């Protein structure tokens, strides 16, 4: 089975073109095997590029490294757009891609006839606690206390089609990210588990982020997480609506527009290599 390895600022996935090959029978097991960085290809998960059933240009199905299916991936969808254009599925300056978050609009920036950067309309944030979902109080919870491992963090919760828990810290240390990250992911306050963003403030227009991603562990970047952080910063009065987010794998540009209440994310997409996975 043919595959392509791609990444969006280090958030790397194995991509399978289901326009050309049948949808895998056991995707969860395939995702676990392919994502293994020692015995497989290595990645944060597997993304299937499929024909859409609602008239969009393609459908994205995203599976984490542990085999669980997630609703959306901001870095992943930029790579899907690049694959669709560069590999000739559809060559247009803008695309519509169906996801578990709904159908999203993407604008492509080209260089040398190939996609270099993509701007994604990530849609409107989901702020109702029950729909994020979280059991913390508030719609959404803003700087709500979350007791974890003998300490209390102030957290703000936002969904961008998948759940996020944002906490502002003086320093995003390994102890916070690697030890508390998985504890927060599995906290009973989050019925569907949660992605966790640890944020260092630089200015009202610039922040630094580390992410513990639900089902994958720490990743070098998280596009939906960066979008959720943009919203959280505005709601808590820490940041402006336009933001530069420095993630471990690179930078993303974010804007939460008042005009349509949608979050726009812009960043690069990179193809690494292709190969054949033994059936």
Explain what you see:
The longest helix is centred in the N-terminal third of the chain and has 13 residues, at 74-86. It is built from 4 helices and 18 strands. With 279 residues, the chain is an alpha+beta fold. The chain folds into 2 domains: 2-123 and 267-276, Diaminopimelate Epimerase, Chain A, domain 1; 129-261, Diaminopimelate Epimerase, Chain A, domain 1 (Roll), CATH 3.10.310.10. The chain has an 18-stranded mixed β-sheet that branches. It has helices at 27-35, 74-86, 174-185, 223-235, and strands at 2-8, 11-17, 45-50, 58-64, 69-70, 94-99, 102-111, 114-121, 144-148, 151-159, 163-168, 195-203, 206-213, 217-219, 242-247, 250-256, 263-268, 270-276.
Overview in brief:
The chain has 279 residues and is of the alpha+beta class. The chain contains four helices and 18 strands.
Write the layout of secondary structure elements.
Elements: E1 2-8, E2 11-17, H1 27-35, E3 45-50, E4 58-64, E5 69-70, H2 74-86, E6 94-99, E7 102-111, E8 114-121, E9 144-148, E10 151-159, E11 163-168, H3 174-185, E12 195-203, E13 206-213, E14 217-219, H4 223-235, E15 242-247, E16 250-256, E17 263-268, E18 270-276
